[in-house]
Structures
1.
Amino acid sequence: MDENKKQHEWILDGIDCANCANKVERGVAKVAGVANSNVNYMTQTLSFEVTGEREEIRNIQFYT
Protein backbone atom coordinates (compact mmCIF):
# COMPACT_ATOMS: atom_id res chain seq x y z
CA MET A 1 0.00 0.00 0.00
CA ASP A 2 1.24 3.47 -0.92
CA GLU A 3 2.26 5.59 2.07
CA ASN A 4 -0.23 8.29 1.00
CA LYS A 5 -3.13 5.85 1.26
CA LYS A 6 -4.86 4.76 4.41
CA GLN A 7 -6.98 1.59 4.50
CA HIS A 8 -10.35 1.64 6.26
CA GLU A 9 -12.77 -1.16 7.04
CA TRP A 10 -16.19 -0.37 8.41
CA ILE A 11 -18.96 -2.66 9.59
CA LEU A 12 -22.26 -1.89 7.88
CA ASP A 13 -25.43 -2.48 9.84
CA GLY A 14 -28.71 -2.99 8.03
CA ILE A 15 -27.54 -4.01 4.56
CA ASP A 16 -30.60 -6.03 3.52
CA CYS A 17 -29.72 -7.02 -0.02
CA ALA A 18 -26.93 -7.20 -2.58
CA ASN A 19 -28.46 -4.23 -4.44
CA CYS A 20 -28.11 -2.07 -1.30
CA ALA A 21 -24.49 -3.17 -0.93
CA ASN A 22 -23.85 -2.24 -4.56
CA LYS A 23 -25.36 1.24 -4.06
CA VAL A 24 -23.14 1.84 -1.03
CA GLU A 25 -20.04 0.66 -2.89
CA ARG A 26 -20.76 2.91 -5.88
CA GLY A 27 -21.58 5.88 -3.64
CA VAL A 28 -18.37 5.59 -1.64
CA ALA A 29 -16.33 5.20 -4.83
CA LYS A 30 -17.64 8.61 -6.01
CA VAL A 31 -16.23 10.46 -2.98
CA ALA A 32 -13.12 12.46 -3.89
CA GLY A 33 -9.98 10.79 -2.58
CA VAL A 34 -11.50 7.32 -2.17
CA ALA A 35 -9.90 4.37 -3.97
CA ASN A 36 -10.70 0.66 -4.08
CA SER A 37 -14.17 0.80 -2.55
CA ASN A 38 -15.52 -2.69 -1.85
CA VAL A 39 -18.63 -3.86 0.02
CA ASN A 40 -18.86 -7.49 1.09
CA TYR A 41 -22.57 -8.27 1.45
CA MET A 42 -22.02 -11.54 3.29
CA THR A 43 -19.82 -10.05 6.02
CA GLN A 44 -21.54 -6.63 5.87
CA THR A 45 -18.24 -4.76 5.67
CA LEU A 46 -17.04 -1.81 3.62
CA SER A 47 -13.34 -1.59 2.74
CA PHE A 48 -11.78 1.41 1.04
CA GLU A 49 -8.61 3.45 0.81
CA VAL A 50 -8.36 7.20 1.23
CA THR A 51 -5.66 8.90 -0.82
CA GLY A 52 -3.98 12.24 -0.30
CA GLU A 53 -2.61 14.04 2.69
CA ARG A 54 -5.95 14.90 4.25
CA GLU A 55 -8.63 12.31 4.82
CA GLU A 56 -12.16 13.32 3.96
CA ILE A 57 -14.00 10.23 5.12
CA ARG A 58 -16.57 12.33 6.94
CA ASN A 59 -17.89 13.20 3.46
CA ILE A 60 -19.01 9.61 2.92
CA GLN A 61 -22.78 9.41 3.09
CA PHE A 62 -24.87 6.36 2.35
CA TYR A 63 -28.01 6.64 0.26
CA THR A 64 -29.70 3.26 0.21
2.
Amino acid sequence: MRPVGERGSATVVLIAVLATTSIVTASLLGAAGHRVAAARARGAADAAALAAAAATVGLVTDPPCVAAARLARVNAAVLVGCGVDGARARVEVSVGTGPLSAHAVAVAGPRP
Protein backbone atom coordinates (compact mmCIF):
# COMPACT_ATOMS: atom_id res chain seq x y z
CA MET A 1 0.00 0.00 0.00
CA ARG A 2 1.24 3.50 -0.87
CA PRO A 3 1.46 6.35 1.56
CA VAL A 4 -1.47 8.74 1.18
CA GLY A 5 0.71 11.77 0.24
CA GLU A 6 2.15 10.12 -2.92
CA ARG A 7 -1.10 9.32 -4.72
CA GLY A 8 -1.18 10.91 -8.17
CA SER A 9 2.48 11.91 -8.23
CA ALA A 10 3.08 9.93 -11.45
CA THR A 11 0.35 11.98 -13.13
CA VAL A 12 2.09 15.22 -12.23
CA VAL A 13 5.43 13.94 -13.56
CA LEU A 14 3.78 12.71 -16.76
CA ILE A 15 2.11 16.08 -17.34
CA ALA A 16 5.44 17.87 -16.80
CA VAL A 17 7.22 15.56 -19.27
CA LEU A 18 4.48 15.99 -21.89
CA ALA A 19 4.49 19.78 -21.48
CA THR A 20 8.27 19.94 -21.84
CA THR A 21 8.17 17.70 -24.91
CA SER A 22 5.48 19.87 -26.48
CA ILE A 23 7.44 23.08 -25.89
CA VAL A 24 10.66 21.61 -27.33
CA THR A 25 8.81 20.24 -30.38
CA ALA A 26 7.09 23.57 -31.04
CA SER A 27 10.41 25.41 -30.78
CA LEU A 28 12.11 23.02 -33.20
CA LEU A 29 9.26 23.31 -35.70
CA GLY A 30 9.44 27.10 -35.48
CA ALA A 31 13.18 27.06 -36.11
CA ALA A 32 12.74 24.72 -39.06
CA GLY A 33 10.05 26.98 -40.49
CA HIS A 34 12.34 29.97 -40.23
CA ARG A 35 15.16 28.12 -42.01
CA VAL A 36 12.79 27.24 -44.85
CA ALA A 37 11.64 30.86 -45.14
CA ALA A 38 15.26 32.06 -45.16
CA ALA A 39 16.17 29.63 -47.95
CA ARG A 40 13.16 30.75 -49.98
CA ALA A 41 14.10 34.39 -49.44
CA ARG A 42 17.68 33.78 -50.63
CA GLY A 43 16.42 32.02 -53.77
CA ALA A 44 13.90 34.75 -54.53
CA ALA A 45 16.52 37.46 -53.99
CA ASP A 46 18.98 35.73 -56.32
CA ALA A 47 16.37 35.35 -59.05
CA ALA A 48 15.20 38.96 -58.68
CA ALA A 49 18.75 40.30 -58.79
CA LEU A 50 19.51 38.30 -61.93
CA ALA A 51 16.33 39.60 -63.59
CA ALA A 52 17.24 43.18 -62.72
CA ALA A 53 20.79 42.74 -64.01
CA ALA A 54 19.49 41.15 -67.20
CA ALA A 55 17.18 44.11 -67.70
CA THR A 56 20.09 46.55 -67.37
CA VAL A 57 21.84 44.99 -70.37
CA GLY A 58 18.69 44.62 -72.46
CA LEU A 59 18.02 40.89 -72.06
CA VAL A 60 14.64 41.70 -70.46
CA THR A 61 12.35 44.39 -71.84
CA ASP A 62 11.02 45.60 -68.45
CA PRO A 63 12.85 48.21 -66.37
CA PRO A 64 15.23 46.53 -63.90
CA CYS A 65 13.22 47.02 -60.71
CA VAL A 66 9.97 46.02 -62.42
CA ALA A 67 11.59 42.79 -63.62
CA ALA A 68 12.95 42.17 -60.12
CA ALA A 69 9.54 42.77 -58.53
CA ARG A 70 7.87 40.40 -60.99
CA LEU A 71 10.36 37.61 -60.30
CA ALA A 72 10.14 38.15 -56.55
CA ARG A 73 6.34 37.90 -56.75
CA VAL A 74 6.60 34.67 -58.78
CA ASN A 75 8.74 33.26 -55.96
CA ALA A 76 6.17 34.27 -53.31
CA ALA A 77 8.33 37.14 -52.06
CA VAL A 78 7.96 40.90 -51.85
CA LEU A 79 10.58 43.24 -53.29
CA VAL A 80 11.61 45.54 -50.44
CA GLY A 81 14.47 47.38 -52.12
CA CYS A 82 16.02 47.67 -55.55
CA GLY A 83 19.03 49.60 -56.75
CA VAL A 84 20.88 49.69 -60.04
CA ASP A 85 24.40 50.96 -60.65
CA GLY A 86 25.36 50.53 -64.29
CA ALA A 87 24.82 46.85 -65.11
CA ARG A 88 24.94 45.87 -61.43
CA ALA A 89 21.71 45.32 -59.49
CA ARG A 90 21.13 44.98 -55.74
CA VAL A 91 17.77 43.77 -54.46
CA GLU A 92 16.26 43.02 -51.07
CA VAL A 93 13.26 40.73 -50.69
CA SER A 94 11.05 39.56 -47.85
CA VAL A 95 9.27 36.23 -47.54
CA GLY A 96 6.46 35.54 -45.10
CA THR A 97 4.95 37.65 -42.36
CA GLY A 98 5.15 37.77 -38.62
CA PRO A 99 7.81 36.03 -36.57
CA LEU A 100 8.70 33.58 -39.34
CA SER A 101 9.42 36.20 -41.99
CA ALA A 102 12.83 36.27 -43.61
CA HIS A 103 14.76 38.90 -45.56
CA ALA A 104 17.54 38.41 -48.07
CA VAL A 105 19.79 40.65 -50.15
CA ALA A 106 21.38 39.68 -53.46
CA VAL A 107 23.65 41.42 -55.94
CA ALA A 108 24.02 40.48 -59.61
CA GLY A 109 26.04 41.89 -62.45
CA PRO A 110 29.69 42.42 -63.32
CA ARG A 111 32.27 42.89 -60.60
CA PRO A 112 33.01 46.53 -59.81
3.
Amino acid sequence: MRGWTSATARWDSGFFSAPPGGTFEGPGLRGEVLAGGGDWTLFRPDGVMTLDVRLTLHTHDDALLHMTYGGRWVTPPDLRADMADADKRHQVDPARYYFRTNPLFETGANRYAWLNDIVCVGSGYLVEGGIAYKVSQVV
Protein backbone atom coordinates (compact mmCIF):
# COMPACT_ATOMS: atom_id res chain seq x y z
CA MET A 1 0.00 0.00 0.00
CA ARG A 2 1.30 3.44 -0.85
CA GLY A 3 1.32 6.43 1.48
CA TRP A 4 -1.92 8.33 1.90
CA THR A 5 -2.08 11.90 0.70
CA SER A 6 -5.75 12.68 1.32
CA ALA A 7 -9.03 11.09 2.36
CA THR A 8 -8.72 8.90 -0.74
CA ALA A 9 -5.69 6.71 -1.36
CA ARG A 10 -5.30 4.81 -4.61
CA TRP A 11 -3.12 1.83 -5.36
CA ASP A 12 -2.89 -0.70 -8.13
CA SER A 13 -6.03 -2.69 -7.32
CA GLY A 14 -8.34 -0.46 -5.32
CA PHE A 15 -8.98 2.58 -3.21
CA PHE A 16 -9.93 3.73 0.27
CA SER A 17 -12.37 6.52 0.98
CA ALA A 18 -14.04 7.98 4.03
CA PRO A 19 -17.81 7.93 3.40
CA PRO A 20 -19.29 11.44 3.63
CA GLY A 21 -22.35 10.49 5.71
CA GLY A 22 -26.03 10.25 4.89
CA THR A 23 -29.33 9.13 6.36
CA PHE A 24 -31.19 5.87 6.91
CA GLU A 25 -34.80 5.00 7.62
CA GLY A 26 -36.76 1.79 8.02
CA PRO A 27 -39.21 0.01 10.31
CA GLY A 28 -38.20 0.93 13.87
CA LEU A 29 -34.90 2.46 12.84
CA ARG A 30 -33.89 5.86 11.48
CA GLY A 31 -31.08 8.36 11.81
CA GLU A 32 -27.89 9.50 10.17
CA VAL A 33 -24.76 7.85 8.85
CA LEU A 34 -21.89 9.69 10.50
CA ALA A 35 -19.14 11.04 8.25
CA GLY A 36 -15.96 9.01 8.39
CA GLY A 37 -15.75 5.28 8.70
CA GLY A 38 -14.04 3.44 5.91
CA ASP A 39 -14.82 2.10 2.46
CA TRP A 40 -12.15 -0.23 1.11
CA THR A 41 -12.90 -1.13 -2.49
CA LEU A 42 -10.77 -3.54 -4.48
CA PHE A 43 -11.03 -4.06 -8.22
CA ARG A 44 -10.57 -7.54 -9.55
CA PRO A 45 -8.97 -7.99 -12.98
CA ASP A 46 -12.44 -8.77 -14.41
CA GLY A 47 -13.74 -5.35 -13.29
CA VAL A 48 -15.81 -6.61 -10.35
CA MET A 49 -15.58 -4.46 -7.22
CA THR A 50 -15.26 -6.17 -3.85
CA LEU A 51 -16.53 -4.05 -0.97
CA ASP A 52 -15.43 -3.81 2.67
CA VAL A 53 -17.29 -0.97 4.42
CA ARG A 54 -17.45 0.10 8.08
CA LEU A 55 -19.79 2.86 9.26
CA THR A 56 -21.19 4.39 12.42
CA LEU A 57 -24.93 5.03 12.49
CA HIS A 58 -26.47 7.55 14.90
CA THR A 59 -30.15 6.86 15.54
CA HIS A 60 -32.85 9.48 16.02
CA ASP A 61 -32.95 8.55 19.74
CA ASP A 62 -29.19 8.95 20.24
CA ALA A 63 -27.91 5.35 20.00
CA LEU A 64 -24.76 4.44 18.12
CA LEU A 65 -24.65 1.40 15.84
CA HIS A 66 -21.60 -0.06 14.15
CA MET A 67 -22.41 -1.38 10.67
CA THR A 68 -20.07 -3.44 8.53
CA TYR A 69 -20.66 -5.00 5.16
CA GLY A 70 -18.89 -6.79 2.40
CA GLY A 71 -20.29 -7.12 -1.04
CA ARG A 72 -19.88 -7.34 -4.78
CA TRP A 73 -20.62 -4.82 -7.50
CA VAL A 74 -20.65 -6.37 -10.95
CA THR A 75 -21.02 -3.98 -13.87
CA PRO A 76 -21.18 -5.44 -17.38
CA PRO A 77 -18.49 -4.02 -19.71
CA ASP A 78 -21.08 -2.30 -21.94
CA LEU A 79 -22.33 -0.22 -18.95
CA ARG A 80 -18.97 0.88 -17.56
CA ALA A 81 -18.73 4.14 -19.54
CA ASP A 82 -22.20 5.26 -18.40
CA MET A 83 -21.47 4.19 -14.81
CA ALA A 84 -18.27 6.28 -14.83
CA ASP A 85 -20.17 9.37 -16.01
CA ALA A 86 -21.44 11.30 -12.95
CA ASP A 87 -24.25 12.83 -15.03
CA LYS A 88 -25.52 9.49 -16.35
CA ARG A 89 -24.80 6.81 -13.75
CA HIS A 90 -27.91 7.35 -11.62
CA GLN A 91 -30.05 6.91 -14.76
CA VAL A 92 -28.80 3.35 -15.40
CA ASP A 93 -31.46 0.78 -14.49
CA PRO A 94 -30.20 -1.13 -11.41
CA ALA A 95 -31.54 -4.35 -12.96
CA ARG A 96 -28.66 -4.04 -15.47
CA TYR A 97 -25.93 -4.45 -12.82
CA TYR A 98 -25.41 -6.57 -9.69
CA PHE A 99 -24.71 -4.64 -6.47
CA ARG A 100 -25.25 -6.70 -3.30
CA THR A 101 -24.06 -6.40 0.28
CA ASN A 102 -24.29 -8.34 3.55
CA PRO A 103 -24.69 -5.85 6.43
CA LEU A 104 -24.02 -6.82 10.04
CA PHE A 105 -24.60 -4.60 13.09
CA GLU A 106 -23.14 -4.22 16.57
CA THR A 107 -24.40 -2.01 19.38
CA GLY A 108 -24.43 -1.71 23.15
CA ALA A 109 -27.78 0.11 23.09
CA ASN A 110 -30.35 -2.19 24.73
CA ARG A 111 -33.25 -0.98 22.57
CA TYR A 112 -31.33 -2.05 19.44
CA ALA A 113 -29.71 -5.21 20.83
CA TRP A 114 -31.80 -7.27 18.41
CA LEU A 115 -29.54 -5.97 15.62
CA ASN A 116 -26.58 -7.84 17.17
CA ASP A 117 -28.26 -11.16 16.33
CA ILE A 118 -29.46 -10.71 12.76
CA VAL A 119 -27.99 -11.10 9.30
CA CYS A 120 -29.08 -8.81 6.48
CA VAL A 121 -28.74 -8.56 2.74
CA GLY A 122 -28.65 -5.33 0.83
CA SER A 123 -29.18 -4.26 -2.74
CA GLY A 124 -27.33 -1.13 -3.79
CA TYR A 125 -28.26 1.27 -6.53
CA LEU A 126 -27.09 4.64 -7.76
CA VAL A 127 -29.06 7.81 -7.08
CA GLU A 128 -28.26 11.36 -8.11
CA GLY A 129 -25.24 12.38 -6.06
CA GLY A 130 -24.58 9.03 -4.40
CA ILE A 131 -25.54 5.49 -3.56
CA ALA A 132 -28.63 4.09 -1.81
CA TYR A 133 -29.35 0.65 -0.39
CA LYS A 134 -32.40 -1.42 0.33
CA VAL A 135 -31.49 -3.59 3.33
CA SER A 136 -33.56 -6.55 4.53
CA GLN A 137 -33.23 -8.97 7.40
CA VAL A 138 -32.73 -12.62 6.45
CA VAL A 139 -35.37 -14.66 8.28
